[in-house]
């Protein structure tokens, strides 16, 4: 049995990658969730089942929150919780893109304490433990402020004038990637200065990425500038603004 929570998550992520890769570009069965909540594939369900069995067998006293498992109130009475997105970026997975990930985290008393985001097709394993740093394939991550126009990862709707003071977004170099967890990792590795999503965000999309950015030296808050709290009764937070100190301040100061 793995000695630490983070070792357990890394082992589970590798197994998830093996399962999902077997379905990748193999025309998996696809269903569409109610209320336009997006697609889900047989690969999502297969990975979710494996993770639930493996992780809860190893840590039976931990609560469980996953995008592909029906939620219940049991997790609210636990000290620790697994927060899981079996495949983040399912549309990318269906379309044959490489930008999908397994996002696996553990929360303790509302804070993420261990986190893994694994992109099997890119062979990129992002991992972080609270107080012990963030890593990509074993190499420590460290981000810092840069001079010039910040590069920001965000979907197009986030740049609508209604979200910004005087109806004008700050001057930014705008980019996009399919997986929200992957966007957060790209900030953690220093390829982009910031990411944001201004709509309510599901905890499973952002839990692992939050710790990866924080342990790399960045800042992660909700759109109001407050720290993120996890294992909420309704598992959403009020958007996410994350990045280097300077980029985070620019975005937060510019929001309406």
From TrEMBL:
InterPro entries: Inositol_monoP_metal-BS, Inositol_monophosphatase-like, Inositol_monophosphatase_CS
Entry keyword Hydrolase: yes
CDD domains from the UniProt entry: CysQ
A family per Pfam: Inositol_P
Highest taxon above the source species: Bacteria
SUPFAM superfamilies, per the entry: Carbohydrate phosphatase
Alphabetized UniProt keyword annotations: Hydrolase, Magnesium, Metal-binding
Gene3D superfamilies documented for this protein: 3.40.190.80, Fructose-1,6-Bisphosphatase, subunit A, domain 1
Metal-binding listed as a keyword: yes
Family per record: Belongs to the inositol monophosphatase superfamily.
PANTHER family to which the protein is assigned, alphabetical: INOSITOL MONOPHOSPHATASE, INOSITOL-1-MONOPHOSPHATASE-RELATED
Name of the featured protein: 3'(2'),5'-bisphosphate nucleotidase CysQ
